[in-house]
Specification:
Elements lengths: L28 H10 L23 H13 L5 H10 L1 H7 L6 H10 L10 E6 L2 E5 L1
Length: about 140
Amino acid sequence: MGHFVEGADRDQASFLPARLEDYVSPDHPVRVIDAFLDDLDLAELGFARAQPAATGRPGYAPGTMLKLYVYSYRHQLTSSRKLECEAGRNIELMWLMGKLVPDFKTIADFRHAVVSLADLSPAEVTVERPKRLRLRR
């Protein structure tokens, strides 16, 4: 006669929110990272591959990798392998990265190329509210 809390049946189909958008609240801090980095001109900041090459295998967009980099700073994730794992299971990162999961070597190479966030831009960022960003140069 045990009364335990039971989890959902893994084989049961669900009609609950299937969109990642539904799992990240409108005032979540990860949206600030997304909004700020979407407004940056990466070519102006010196990212060599801000424009994709016409030939070869497509790479990850520098803006997408930069979002992962900033997220890792905010959450003190220092391991590229741990970041790869988080990108595949963390709802916030899935939303931020558009469900892309770069491997640890790609993450490590990008981190090596971008030495520190302080070197990215002389811009000063002021966040007044979660939905309002202002970029001052």
